[in-house]
Design a protein that fits this description.
single chain, mainly alpha, about 35% helix, two-stranded antiparallel sheet
Length: about 120
């Protein structure tokens, strides 16, 4: 796969989040770009396939150690979702997140099994 040289345009909204420092915004954009566009969803994969990533250590630190106001971040996230009709909350809609066929690593992850992935044409 060719490396990604720019963040995806869908990450531009993170520039408006006051709960994140400029460095945190940068890493958040790396993380969102990875979740959206990269097949290897590990910190190593992110740093390897997204050229703007600043390396394994800094990205891992962002995901595990950075101190940020989680309540404020969540508020800003929900406000942004409310700004768009397709993601606006309503009592009649549901969002179902199914990660059944996402690749997982490890021997003792709860609820992990082998499933047929139609896109891959094989079990994962």
């Amino acid at each position: 796969m060719m490396p990604i040289t720019n963040f995806l345009s869908c990450t531009d909204v993170l520039d408006e989040f006051e709960s994140l420092s400029p460095q945190q915004r940068y890493h958040a954009k790396t993380y969102v770009t990875d979740l959206t566009a990269v097949s290897n969803k590990t910190v190593t994969g992110m740093a390897r396939e997204i050229l703007p990533a600043k390396g394994n250590y800094t990205l891992n630190k962002f995901l595990t150690e950075y101190d940020r106001d989680k309540e404020q971040f969540n508020h800003e996230r929900l406000e942004e979702l409310q700004n768009h009709g397709e993601t606006r909350w309503s009592q009649d809609d549901y969002i179902i997140h199914d990660d059944t066929i996402n690749q997982k690593a490890g021997d003792f992850i709860p609820s992990v099994g082998r499933f047929y992935d139609h896109a891959e044409g094989d079990t994962v």
